[in-house]
Every structure is written in C-alpha cells, then in structure tokens.
Design brief:
- The complex is a heterotrimer of chains A (352), B (341) and C (258).
- Chain A is 74% helix and 1% strand.
- With 352 residues, chain A is an all-alpha fold.
- Chain A has one domain.
- The two termini of chain A are 25 Å apart.
- In chain B, the strands form two sheets. Chain B has a two-stranded antiparallel sheet.
- In chain B, strand 2 and strand 3 form a beta hairpin.
- Chain B is globular.
- The N terminus of chain B is likely disordered.
- In chain C, the strands form two sheets. Chain C has a six-stranded mixed beta sheet with strand order 6-7-8-3-9-10, with helices on both faces.
- With 258 residues, chain C is α/β, with parallel strands linked by helices.
- In chain C, helix 3 packs parallel to helix 6.
- In chain C, 45% of the residues are buried.
- Classes of the chains: A mainly alpha (352), B mainly alpha (341), C alpha/beta (258).
Chain lengths: 352, 341, 258
C-alpha cells in the first residue's frame, strides 16, 4: 500500500523519514496545530512551493536541464486563473477555464523553447530561458489591461474558499471552520496528489530514461534526437506542474502580481530550495521548500534579535539585518553546492 | 620572409567566398540600421541611431569579457552582473563626495571626479573578479551545472553585500555637467552623453581588437578560445591567461556599470542582473567566444531596441528576444561562430 | 652553414647504450573516465632516433602520446624524460622540458594566420631566421601562405604547419600522431622527405603510424601496441625482415600494406 503510494521510492534514511513525517503531519493538521492567519499562509505557501520546487527538480535534478524560466510557467498558471476570475467573476467555471488555458499555454511555450534550444549546451539553455522569462515578465507588467500591470490582479474566488463561508457554526479544537480552512485543504490535498504523481513519474521507466540522459549527455554539446524529445517532454512536464502550482497560489492568495509569480527573485528562491534540499530527489524539494519558507518567515525575527544585540558594533548589525537573510542563504547555497551537492537529503541518506 | 603576393588563384577563391560569407552579418547590421529610414524622418532616425549605438556600446563593454571567458575556459559566469553593479556603486561612492566638482562648469574638474571614479570601479571590479574566479569558479571547472549554480549563488551574495554596504535604496546620480544636455548638428539635437558612450565603446573595441590581433597575449587568447589544450601543449599556462582575461573582463564590466549608471542616472543593487539579460542575448547573437561578434551583436540589440521602441512600443519589449530567435534560426552558432575543436 | 637541428650533444646513433634513453615508459596505466585504456605500457625511446609506435585502431597509441604529454593523467607507473619523472606533471611544464606534440587532428589554430601559428610555437620569442628558412625549404607551401588564415590551408598543408610548429625551436623530442592520415600519396612522399631531413639532423621522434611501409622507411626502433599494452619492442630492421612477426603483431602481411 505505502509502496504503491510512494511508487517504491522510500526516503531511505531513518532521520529523513522522521523529518518528512513531521512535515507531513504539520501540514496536514496545520490549521489546528498552528492556528492563526499567518501560520496558515506559511503552511499553504509551503504546500504549493513543494509542487513548484519538485517540478523544477524534475528538470534540474533528474534530467539535468538548467532552466531559468520556471517562474514564467508558475506565473502562466497563476495569471490564467487570475484573469479568468477577474473577468468572469468568482465561479468554478472560471477557475476551470483559467486552469485549462494556463496549462495549455505553459505546455506550448515549454515545447517551443524546448525544441528550439534543448539541443544545445546546458549553459546556452540557461541563458535563453533567462532571456525569455525576463521578456515575459516585462510583457506581463506592460499588458495592464489584461494583467493589471505592476499592481497585479485582486479578485474574488468561489465563495466556499473565502473567510465569509461558514463550514460549521461551532469551532473545532478552537479553530473557526471557515472557507479559508477549505481553501487550505484544497491547496494541501492537490499539492500532495501532485507530489505523488511526480514521485510516480520519476520512478517510472520514463523517469529512468531522463536520469540516464542526464548521466550520459550532460556534458555533450549536441544531443541525439531521441534525447531532445525526452528532454522536451521533461521540460513540458515541469512547466505543467509549475503552472498547477501557480493555480494553487492564485486561489490561495486571491491576488496575482509580478512580484508573487514572475519575479526573478522567486526563480532564485526556487534554485536555493532545490539545491539546499537536495537535487535529484523529490523529498529534497519538500525539505528545501519547508526550510526556506520557514526561514523566510521566522529566521528574520532571529536575525533581527542578533542585529539588535550587536547594534554597537560596526557592520555586524548590517550583516544581520532581517532583510539580509538572503545573504546568508546565498552563502549556504554556495557551500551546499560545493560540499553537499546532493543537499540535505543526500547528506541524511549517506550518513544512515 | 614577406608574403609572396603571387598566391595561386585556386586557393584564393575559396577564402574569398568565405570572406563574403563572413561579411554577411556586417551587411545585415547596416541593412537593419538603414531600413527604418523609410518609416521615419531623417532626424528621428539619426537620434534613434545614436541612442541605439550608445546602448549597444555600453552592453558591448559589459559583455566583451564574458564572451572571452566563456570561449577560453567554457565557463559562463552568471555572476558577471555583480561586477556591473559593483562598479557602478563604487564609482558612485567616489563621485558623490565630489558632487561640487561634478557640477562645476569645468571639463577638468568634471574629469577629476569622473576619472578616479572609473579607475576605482574598474580596479575593484577586477579585484572582485579575481576573488570570484579563485573562490567560486575554480573548484567547479568543467561542470556546467555547478558553474551555473555557484555563479548564481555568487551573484546573490554580491548583490546582498552591496545592500549591506550601500543600503537598500536606489541612489540617484548626476552626470558631470560637461556631459549633460545636448548639442545640435544641423537641425538635429543629440544627447552629449550618448555620443561619449559611443566614443568610449569604439575605443574599447579598437583596443581589444588591437590586443587580440597584434600582441602575443592576444594571439594566445584567440588560440586558446579555439583549442586550449594545444595552447598548453605548446608550453603556455592557459590558467594564467584565463585569470588575466577574467580580471580584465570584470574590470570592463565595472566600466560598463559606471557608464550605464550615468546613463540611467541612478544605481540599484540589481541593475547588473537586469542588464545581464541583454548581455546574454548579445553574446548568444554574436557567437560565444567572439569579441567581434559581441560588438556586432551589441550594436544590433541597441539599434533594434531603439527603432522598435519608437515604431512599435508594445513590440519593443520582446524585440530583442525576437532578434535572438531570428539570428539563431539563421545561424545557430551566432553571427560570428568561433572555430571550436 | 650549420644545420640548425644538430644539437651539440648529438649522439652516434645505431646501437643505443642505456644512457641514451630519452623517454622511458614503465608500466604506465591511464584511465579515461571509467575506462582502463592503458594497462601497463612499457617501452623506451632512444635519443636521436625515430621510434615508431604501431598497432591497430584502439590499441592505445594516441592515449600513450597524450599521457606522455600530460593531457591524460597517468593513474599508475612512471614516465621518465631525460632522467626526470614527468608523470603527473602539467602539460605546459612537460612542453617546456622540450617535448613537442603534433596531435592526430593537427590542432592548428584555424582563426590565426600561418605566421601567427608559428609565432605562438616559438616560445622563446623571436623566430630564428635560419631555422625558419630551413622550414620553408622543407615545406615551401608555408612560405607561400604565410599570411593566410591557417583554416584555409589544405589537409596536407595543415599537417606541414603542425610539424613546422613543433620544430620552429629545437626540441628534445617530437611526438607525432599519424602524420600521413588522410593525405594524398604525393604529399605523403613529401612528408617522408621532410622526415628524412629531420632524421639526418638526429631529431628524436616518437611517431604513431598505421602505414607500415611509411614506418619501415623512417623507423629505427619500433614498439607495437595491442589492447593497451606494448606487445613487442625492438629494432625496426628486425621487424621489417620478419614477415611472420609482422603478421602475428599487426595482423596484416606486408603485401597487404603495399
């Protein structure tokens, strides 16, 4: 049973298993374990980022494709739903239509980029995708009649997902059962299913072909036709999953803008999460996303304390200013590429 | 030892055809530059062309080092943008206290503020380049995946350090008085600073070309881009050559950063990363490893961006991507492909 | 006029005393990624002689030259050059000890002119005029196309340039990989003449060759490789006379090569 659910891909480390179970339970019962709007938002963000990061790992870790346009697909999914809800009103039909259009667009764009440039060196692909993604971001912020421009779009979602909706009149374990709980469990369960689907994919024969392509062809200049097809498929799959993560983000946030979806900063975040968690293992995405988002939200408090405590010293308070947390993650990232190229997951597995 | 001029015609025709083919990219640039005349009046075209050239030259200065570094060691530094930002911030740090000199109505006082700023920016960007190469890139030679990741990490750290040192807000910058404003030629008004940017760009290109064609170091660089292994087998340490090029390229990125900052009249920590997108497009279009290609690519990108910006502002945003796609469909290795083994 | 290639310490040739071993490979193993290519190569290159390295495709001849040059890292065994251990040394250091390399693909710099190729090969700085004229006599085409981009040369001319690069300054040892590969018979003839001249000048050469006829014409001593090992080493004259041995080692009769 468990074997089937996890597609035979077990964490293979006792500590890792424990950590994953803790994360799973925390997310599954987040509304009750960590009540409060902020912690629920953090939990939801972890959920859809796990999908986003895992879909990136599908390309980077499993297939060896270095794409810098992953946020573009995330954005396409989010904007698809956002634009539909914005123009058609808060209905499930709008959500469905937006999702379908977004997914189609994501796959087509990924396919075009893939067939166009996946035959060439990894470096080349990274540059091309970076250029395309940045053009897309500019385009989205300029087409304000459709996308709301820099301000983005705020819209209403179907009522069942809003705080105004009452699931039951009484509190359950002291938690008000409103539409946000429904929305959270929608995000959580869809993310969980998508994660299992990806786990299934990487452990299928198709996934093994991808890994063998990575092993054999990463350094070669030009790939055979067969390999290009497989890489394009992986890239489309990654785009599809990223777009779905975007849909979840759009539904949860009830707002979609360049800063929350398309910005290059998010691309950097994804890279950090994949590498720190562990490339080439989907469980790494879970760890990476969880640790990163927790750090993003709570490490800053700690740093603020350090910064205040060292206020008398020169430069040190600046280095520990809460806004400088990315500096430390950058350092961690570089160290992790050097010393733990397989990330936390690789580290845990090798020590067990 | 002089060349015998009586080269047989049979051998000559083949290279001649090749040479014609080699001219094609230059012809295309001229064509792209001239075509828009039909769509606008002459004075607009002149102004846009100067603007395009100025933009192109600045990108060229920033990109030239990157393309050589790639050619020599197959290293693509995604952190190159850090040198651009770093140069801009250092120059700002030198120029801001000298604001009275910048505002003075004297070329010499203006230069007395600007030149040290440029010198500091280039020296420190070069030094940062050295650290970058030693600490980040050297341990991951030959591994493209790690290279991309490590240099991205370096970029994040460098950008954050800039914020630590200079604060998170963008810093407004004024051009030296001499370079402000415009001049009139006939009935067309040109911005002075653009002309200066073009002149500096042409100078850098000329010096680079001379070094690459006339000095032994230059020959070694070109030979190394084509076949580094053979350069080593001839007894030269390509590593040293590479570090030299890396430092020089970083210093040029610093210079480009200063010029770009003065052009935009503002510096921000992530300006380097923003310009990098254009830099990548330029070196892809030009052909990775070719300085000439980088120059032509930069001019193309600058011109197309400005013409498109005038003719069809909505399309302008994606004009560079379109340009890249078209060039790559025509020549998958770029306009000036480098002979690689 | 003294021949520029003759060194002051030119040995007497023919019989080789042990002291005149220039290059000595002792049980050299080389791995390329996971493949074990050289599996204990041992042979010697005497000073002032042409040593031919023969063997079928994939026997490890090119890998042997590249290992000597430091282009592949030797995983086990010793390479001694002129009394010094050069196994594990960096390629530029090995080159500076006086070993010149002419790879199979010639590796001329096609973006550079013939002249610029030669300028780079002359490490000391200026090219020696006497020596340059001597090279022009050997390969007149190089003089003719002196200012032409090397990429525009024909295959034979590229080969000439590659060899010229190796001899523009006096070197202790030349490693030459299949210089006749893909060349027209007439050019091979010219190449033999040029090599005869080098031989006269008592240049030490280790030459990889597939063409037995060519090897027999030039070789003083010979080593035959198979499956990453040297299976025979001795004098060329001995092998040239022993048809049976040729068949056994090279798998082909002399007739088939002619």
């Amino acid at each position: 049973m468990l074997n089937t659910i996890l597609s035979g891909d077990f964490p293979r480390s006792r500590l890792l298993t424990i950590v994953l179970i803790v994360i799973f339970i925390s997310l599954a019962f987040a509304p009750f374990l960590f009540p409060g709007t902020r912690s629920l938002s953090v939990a939801a963000k972890i959920c859809y980022f796990v999908v986003l990061v895992a879909s990136y790992d599908l390309m980077l870790g499993y297939t060896g494709i270095v794409s810098l346009s992953h946020t573009m697909f995330f954005g396409i999914g989010a904007y698809g739903v956002a634009i539909a809800l914005n123009n058609m009103g808060a209905s499930w039909g709008a959500v469905l239509l937006g999702t379908i259009v977004g997914l189609l667009l994501a796959v087509v764009v990924a396919l075009v980029i893939g067939l166009f440039s996946l035959r060439v060196k990894a470096l080349f692909f990274a540059m091309v995708t970076l250029a395309v993604a940045s053009a897309f971001a500019v385009l989205a912020s300029q087409m304000s009649w459709l996308t709301g421009g820099e301000d983005g779009l705020s819209y209403s979602v179907p009522k069942i997902l809003t705080p105004a909706y009452k699931l039951m009149d009484d509190k359950l374990f002291g938690v008000r059962m409103n539409g946000r709980i429904v929305a959270y469990y929608l995000v959580f369960s869809v993310s969980f299913v998508l994660f299992l689907v990806m786990l299934r994919i990487v452990n299928s024969p198709f996934g093994r072909v991808l890994q063998s392509i990575r092993e054999n062809d990463f350094r070669s200049e030009a790939l055979g036709f067969q390999a290009v097809i497989y890489r394009s498929l992986a890239s489309c799959l990654g785009a599809l999953m990223a777009a779905l993560a975007g849909v979840l983000a759009a539904l949860w946030l009830r707002y979609t803008g360049p800063d929350t979806t398309l910005s290059f900063d998010i691309m950097v975040d994804i890279l950090l999460m994949v590498v720190i968690g562990g490339m080439g293992s989907l469980y790494g995405s879970v760890l990476g996303a969880t640790i990163f988002i927790l750090a993003q939200n709570y490490l800053q408090n700690l740093m603020g304390a350090v910064s205040d405590a060292t206020a008398a010293l020169p430069l040190v308070p600046e280095l520990f200013h809460p806004d400088r947390w990315l500096l430390w993650l950058g350092v961690m990232f570089v160290l992790s590429v050097y010393f733990f190229p397989t990330g936390i997951v690789g580290r845990l597995r090798s020590s067990s | 030892m002089a060349t015998s001029e009586a080269t047989s015609s049979a051998v000559r025709t083949a290279p001649l055809l090749d040479r014609l083919k080699g001219q094609a990219p230059a012809l295309v640039v001229i064509l792209i530059a001239l075509l828009p005349i039909a769509l606008m009046d002459l004075s607009t075209w002149l102004v846009l062309t100067l603007a395009g050239l100025a933009m192109g030259m600045m990108i060229f200065i920033m990109a030239s080092g990157l393309t050589l570094v790639f050619g020599l060691m197959d290293v693509l530094n995604f952190g190159h943008g850090a040198f651009i930002s770093f140069g801009a911030f250092l120059a700002t740090a030198v120029m801001l206290p000298l604001t009275p000199w910048m505002e003075a109505d004297s070329v010499w006082l203006n230069l007395a503020a600007l030149l040290p700023a440029i010198a500091v920016a280039m020296a420190m960007a070069g030094a940062l380049g050295y650290v970058f190469e030693r600490v980040l890139i050297m341990p991951v030679y030959g591994n493209h995946l790690k290279q991309i990741l490590i240099t991205m990490g370096g970029l994040i750290i460098a950008e954050q350090l800039i914020v630590v040192l200079w604060g998170p807000d963008e810093i407004p910058l004024i051009r030296p008085l001499t370079f402000q404003g415009s001049f009139t030629l006939g009935d067309v008004t040109f911005e002075k600073y653009r002309l200066i940017a073009v002149i500096i760009g042409l100078l850098v290109f000329a010096v680079l070309s001379l070094i690459l064609s006339r000095t032994k170091i230059g020959l070694l660089i070109r030979a190394g881009v084509e076949n580094g292994e053979m350069v080593e087998a001839l007894g030269y340490r390509i590593r040293r050559l590479f570090i030299g090029v890396f430092i020089a390229g970083s210093a040029l990125a610093g210079l480009g950063g200063v010029m770009w900052a003065l052009y935009e009249e503002v510096v921000t920590a992530n300006m380097g990363m923003q310009v990098m997108v254009l830099v990548f497009i330029v070196i892809i279009i030009g052909g990775l490893g070719s300085v000439t290609g980088c120059f032509v690519g930069a001019v193309l990108v600058g011109l197309v961006a400005n013409y498109a910006g005038f003719l069809a502002p909505k399309v302008a945003l994606v004009s560079n991507i379109a340009l890249m796609v078209i060039v790559l469909m025509w020549r998958p290795q770029g306009l000036f492909p480098v002979a690689k083994r | 006029m003294s021949d520029p290639l003759v060194r002051n310490s030119a040995p007497m040739a023919s019989t080789v005393p042990a002291a005149d071993i220039l290059l000595d490979l002792d049980d050299v193993h080389t791995h390329i990624e996971q493949y074990h290519i050289l599996q204990g190569v041992s042979f010697q290159v005497p000073r002032g002689q042409f040593t031919m390295l023969l063997g079928r495709n994939g026997a490890g001849k090119t890998t042997t030259l590249r290992s000597v040059m430091g282009l592949w890292k030797v995983s086990q065994g010793r390479i001694t050059f002129d009394g010094a251990d050069i196994g594990g040394a960096a390629t530029p250091d090995i080159a500076c000890r006086g070993i010149a390399y002419v790879p199979e693909d010639m590796s001329i710099f096609s973006d550079l002119t013939v002249k610029e190729n030669m300028v780079l090969a002359a490490r000391q700085g200026e090219m020696d005029d006497t020596r340059l004229n001597w090279i022009f006599d050997l390969f007149p085409a190089l003089k003719k196309f002196w200012s032409l981009e090397a990429g525009a040369l024909s295959g034979g001319q590229k080969q000439m340039l590659a060899i010229a690069r190796a001899i523009i300054e006096p070197r202790e040892l030349l490693l030459i990989d299949e210089p006749t590969k893909g060349l027209a018979p007439a050019i091979v003839g010219a190449m033999i003449e040029a090599f005869q001249e080098l031989k006269q000048a008592q240049t030490s050469v280790l030459l990889v060759e597939q063409n037995f006829q060519f090897a027999r014409t030039l070789g003083d001593s010979v080593a035959v490789m198979d499956d990453g090992r040297v299976v025979h080493a001795g004098s060329m004259a001995e092998l040239a006379e022993n048809v049976e041995l040729q068949q056994q080692l090279l798998g082909l009769s002399l007739d088939a090569h002619q």
